[in-house]
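WARN no homologs supplied; continuing
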Amino acid sequence: MKPADVKRALEIVEDALELSGRELDLFLDDVCGEDSPLRREVLSYLDYNVEGTVLPAVTDSSTAPEIPHAAVSETRYDLGDEIASGGIGVILRAYDKNIHRRVAIKVLRSKWENDPEVMRRFVQEAQIAGQLQHPGIAPVYEIGRLPDRRPFIAMKLVKGSTLEELLDRRQDATYGQAKFLGIFEQVCQAIAFAHRRGVVHRDLKPSNVMVGEFGEVQVMDWGIAKLLDDKHREPTDGQDQNHADGAASDLEEVETDARGHSTRIGEALGTPAYMAPEQCIGRADKTADVFSLGSILCEILTGEKTADSLDAVGEQLDRCPCDQELAELAKDCLQMNEADRPPSAGVVAERISTYLSAIQSRLKEAEVAAARAEVKAEEERKRRRHTLWAISFAAVLLAVAGLFALLIRHVIKERQHAAQADALVD
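OK structure emitted
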């Protein structure tokens, strides 16, 4: 089912928990119809109710293999080999038999199936990513259960490499830097969109950024994303501040079935090398993502993981041969105090876009200047060739004139000698 259908099913389940028998049948007839996929899904949830999640628990997971075999799949998907794995889930290559396309299937590890909090986060990941419709965020197609009752998320299969893999292949920090800054800009734009929708990723790192075969960039793994409280949201009053023509914005708040859940104080979620200091005590807002973006930018510029202290980061960035403007942006993002960082990914995206635009402008100006210099040089070469031809022609004329003068002189002398000879004879 799609995330929106799952959310609707949950709402019906909550209303139906106290009902049974004929009363339940009448209620479901009214809200679902006598026979529908929604009704069957609701009944399935009621049979396997787990507090805090919209997906059922496994009745007996002891025999379930960690990676489902393709032969046991009775869903619309033929499961293939493993693409990636993490502490909570495994991502498999799969084939959608209904519409004949390759997809990625994320399956929850069996050891977490009876953990309500992990199950809630798994469903919330699908709901959040499914509603963040942006070119830089991999779309979610469906959330459902395998025949062994384990939940899965079907999503776009991105063929390519992670940003981490691409960075590891570099010869040095300056190699392909323009390309990596372009990738970073696209990551910033995707996270800016999420921030605008009231979502914080909380686990931004190069291994969670996929770069496709044709250069497309997608931010992955929204498993520990957080929904912001209303007071931390950017205004969504129907006007998109980025639209100069004043057209109405299509941005809306992301909604899930887990609005009432929040990270517990002291619960650290994220990857230490890219985590903001406040995340270590379970506190994270948009500036936590900004810190992670700064860590990624620092790694792009220096070729090294971010240092532990702000002073060490400063020394690290000062040593690298990058523009001062980029080093300052990274330092701003990596401030220890969140109030000293840019307030959201949108500000970071604007600054990196402005920098790249300025670089493009300078490159174009340099190209124009080089072209003008080449034209001028070609004109100078033509002028010199013309001058050389003129000098050569003049030299030839002078030579001919000299020869003609010598010939005339010779003729005159011959005539004089002949005249003298005639005079002697007489």
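Strands lie at 77-85, 89-96, 101-108, 140-145, 151-156, 160-162, 199-200, 209-212, 217-219, 226-227.
OK
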